[in-house]
Amino acid sequence: MFDPQVLQVVAAALKDARVIFIAAHIQPDGDCVGSQLALGHALRALGKEVALALDDKLPDNLNFLNGFREIKPREPQAEDLFVYVDGSDTGRYGKAFNRARSGARPVILIDHHITNEPFGDLNLVDPDAASTAEIIFQVIRALDVPFSPDMAQALLTGIVTDTMGFRTTPTTPETLEQGAELVRAGASIPEIIDRVYNRRSYAALRVLGYAIEHSQLQANVIWSAIDYKTLQTFGGNGNGTGGIVTQLLTVAEADISFFLAEKADGKIDLSLRSRVNADVSNAARRLGGGGHKQAAGATLPPPFETAAQRVLTALQQETKP
Ligand code: 5GP
Ligand code: MN
């Protein structure tokens, strides 16, 4: 839990500002985009001007959220206040974080990562929250703004995606209560599930098939990897590989899964997942990334050929079974 006083200070700072910059993290997901959009809608309801920043490609499966198309790569400009959501360190925001440009104007971090570096002037951080959206829910409450259907749908998207549909361990009674309130305010769980999970491209389905076909089980770790050239043979835009690591962890013999996807620039995206008896956040941190106990990630340098062994070594060093 965060300090309730910090919540009040954050709400007061937001009320005082006129133009507010809100940034989501790179490799965006439903929680960062949902949190960003919901806060943006709430601040507009208070008459504020809002700039929505994201220094990466937008995930197509979130385009059903109103306001999605206003999110663009931007750097800090003349805004009064800078809010960063759901990314645990400044590197997660790319060009959207730039102290040389934002200068002495206040920076607020709102996040739920256990590997968090509190880089803001105000840090509203709760590593026990299942999603950043749940913290934004409380911020909007503290602002005294009633939930509109757009705010509700954006927040519920954050909660549903980070809890994988209320399935992960950090899901608490409060998470479910917030979900109920958001549904009452006009949000729709069936729409979120349909748009986010049940609209894989055919190319992404075939990448999943490849990943399963080439998976390896070593002790309690299941993993798979795809190089950029092979990824290209399936066509598509490289979107939609996000769920693969979760599929791998449905295997009974495994407690940990990871998936490696080589990118066009030779760097490698690593996704890690674990059951509750293992913690992958420290291994991710050792590899230069971060995340949660049960879901973490990193970007690895080349070469692709040694990447899996590097991850297996980090897991051996860092995982307490
Ligand atoms: P995913 O596997 O879904 O990409 O990421 C799982 C979790 O790990 C998310 O909470 C995400 O924020 C975190 N994560 C993924 N990649 C990185 C990274 O490169 N650096 C850090 N700090 N966290 C990451
Ligand atoms: Mn999150």
Q: Would you give an account of this structure?
A:
There is one protein chain. α5 (149-162) crosses α7 (189-197). 37% of the residues lie in helices and 17% in strands. The protein contains twelve helices and eleven strands. β10 (290-291) and β11 form a beta hairpin. The chain starts with a helix and ends with a helix. By secondary structure, the protein is an alpha/beta fold. The protein folds into two domains: 4-196, Alpha-Beta Complex (inorganic pyrophosphatase (n-terminal core)), CATH 3.90.1640; 202-319, Diaminopimelate Epimerase, Chain A, domain 1 (Roll), CATH 3.10.310. The strands form two sheets. A six-stranded mixed sheet has the order 6-7-8-9-11-10, sandwiched between helices. It has a five-stranded parallel sheet with strand order 2-1-3-4-5. The radius of gyration is 19 Å and the shape is globular. The structure holds guanosine-5'-monophosphate and manganese (II) ion. Manganese (II) ion is lined by residues 31, 86, 112, 131-132, 162.
